[in-house]
Structures are given as C-alpha cells and as structure tokens.
Design brief:
The chain is mainly beta and 208 residues long. The protein has two domains: 66 residues, no CATH class; 132 residues, no CATH class. Strands 1-4-2-3 form a four-stranded antiparallel sheet, with no helix packed on it. The radius of gyration is 20 Å and the shape is globular. The chain starts with a strand and ends with a strand.
C-alpha cells in the first residue's frame, strides 16, 4: 500500500521502542536507520509503507511521541458495523464442534475494519449479526487495531466452564500486541459469541 513520499525532515523513529520506520528503495524494503537522509539517491524517493507484521509505532509509522495518544484519537472514525461479505484479514477452521456443526469444519474470520477488531461466527442464529465487535470483550481499552489474527486457543484459558474448543485472537495496536481467548464450545454445547452486551465467552485482553 503506497502511502506517499516522505521528506528527510519528516522521517521519524520509534525512540521508545527502538524500531525504525521502514521504507522502499527500488524494490528493496530498507531501514531508514541504515541510510543517511542526506543521501541524494534516497532524498525524495523514500516511500512509507504500513507493514502489518513490523509496525511498532502504529499505522503509517507513528513516532513514539504521537503513538502515546493515538489509540484514543483513531477511534473517532470507527465504523458502527461490519457486514457479511466485507474483507477479512485472517481465518481459522475448527473441526469437531457439537451438533449441528459436527459434520464439517466451521470457519471463523477476523478483521480490523476502520481500526475496529471484529470476529465472524457463522453459527449465529438466522437474523442475528454474525460479526461481533471485539471491543465488547470485557476489559478492552478500545485501541485502534492495525492487524489481527486468529488461531485455535488454549482451552484452559477460556472463561467458559468445560471448554473443549476455543479461539485465540491476537490484535496489534499502537500500544503493542494483545490477545484474548474465546470459548466457542463445550463437549455438548456450542457457545456462540453474544450478539449484544459484553463478549463474556472471551478473556480480558492481555499483552503478548
């Protein structure tokens, strides 16, 4: 994703975290820390990129001083909903769920639409929203999410008593990585994500 040119006087580093902002020179992803900003070959040609797996100061390379208050500022334009068919960032298929979902693996999706984390549960009853806002997880601070992933979780961490299947959802915000474990089934019962109120089947997010 091209984010525009960066003049040398606007180049910033994540001082607190000790990580450089990345840039593209030619066809190589480089560290701005390794280049002198006075190098005429790079002046006016440095392209800022949002690289989800290496962002350390938030989306579009926030400086350390800016990142401190960005979680709150970025939530102002958050969308109110996520619709079926909208793009998603990661998925995980879960087999062996109780009936009536025992015949085939069930696929759960996660995304970060407008910085808001969402999880898709295809088991929701007809007429109910299948995308649930993960800011409803108890203890969520509402940070702006720049990347998100989902995998099968540690059942012992789930708040649902007797959990046999769970999901571990990990989100990257400008403050760091945070994970929650959500119970989705016991031996005999499916545990859908609540469509209203707190997502009580999920643990309070914790740093990873």
């Amino acid at each position: 994703m091209f984010l525009g040119r960066v003049s040398p006087d606007r180049i910033a580093h994540c001082g607190e975290l000790g990580n450089p902002i990345l840039a593209l020179e030619g066809n190589q992803l480089i560290s701005l820390r390794s280049r002198s900003t006075s190098d005429p070959r790079t002046t006016g040609r440095l392209l800022m990129w949002a690289v989800a797996t290496t962002v350390a100061c938030g989306a579009v390379g926030l400086s350390g001083s800016t990142a401190a208050g960005a979680d709150t500022a970025m939530t102002k334009t958050a969308p109110t909903g996520q619709q079926d068919g909208n793009p998603w960032l990661d998925s995980d298929d879960v087999s062996g769920l109780p009936a009536p979902f025992d015949a085939n693996p069930v696929v759960f999706y996660v995304t970060a639409n407008g910085g808001v984390p969402w999880v898709y549960d295809p088991r929701e009853p007809s007429g109910q929203p299948r995308w649930q806002n993960l800011r409803r997880v108890p203890g969520s601070q509402g940070g702006y999410v720049v990347n998100i992933s989902v995998a099968q979780g540690d059942n012992s961490l789930s708040p649902v008593v007797g959990t046999t299947h769970s999901l571990k959802i990990t989100a990257r915000t400008v403050s760091g990585l945070f994970s929650t474990t959500c119970g989705i089934a016991t031996a005999a019962t499916n545990t859908e994500f609540p469509t209203v109120g707190p997502l009580t089947n999920c643990t309070e997010p914790f740093p990873t």
